[in-house]
Amino acid sequence: MSTPWSLTIDCAHPKELARFWARALGYVEKPPPAGFGSWEEWFAHHDVPEEEWDDGAYLSDPDGTGPSLSFLKVPEPKTAKNRLHLDVRAGGGRETPWETRWPRVAEAVERLTAAGGTVIRVHEFQGRPDHVEMADPEGHEFCVV
Question: 113: domain CATH number?
Answer without folding.
Answer: 3.30.720
